[in-house]
Amino acid sequence: MKLKHMYFHPASKQENNETVLCSFEKKGIPMEKIQSALGRQKRHIASSNSTETSLSMGIEAAKGVLKQSSISIQEIDIIIFVSSTAEHLIPCDSIYIHQALQGKSETMCYD
């Protein structure tokens, strides 16, 4: 198996790190050094009142990588979905991605 294409679909809401930095600083945890080492000034957030979820963003990322790579969903033999905030345990989220993309029936789905 060879990974040839990747696609990133972030949540649409962006926040700067000020709130997070301040909360850690109040606890005596210096975060400024960590932020400068990571180099990330903004974070993408899927807020609790948003319709964006790990699954919806996974579906959009899958559509994006198929479009970007000019690969048909019919050429895909396995869909693997990984998230620390999965929406479903059974059936797994990769099955929902498979359905949204209209994958072939023999495609393996794995979370």
UniProtKB/TrEMBL annotation:
<dbReference type="GO" id="GO:0044550">
    <property type="term" value="P:secondary metabolite biosynthetic process"/>
</dbReference>
<dbReference type="GO" id="GO:0016746">
    <property type="term" value="F:acyltransferase activity"/>
</dbReference>
<dbReference type="InterPro" id="IPR016039">
    <property type="entry name" value="Thiolase-like"/>
</dbReference>
<protein>
    <submittedName>
        <fullName>3-oxoacyl-[acyl-carrier-protein] synthase III</fullName>
    </submittedName>
</protein>
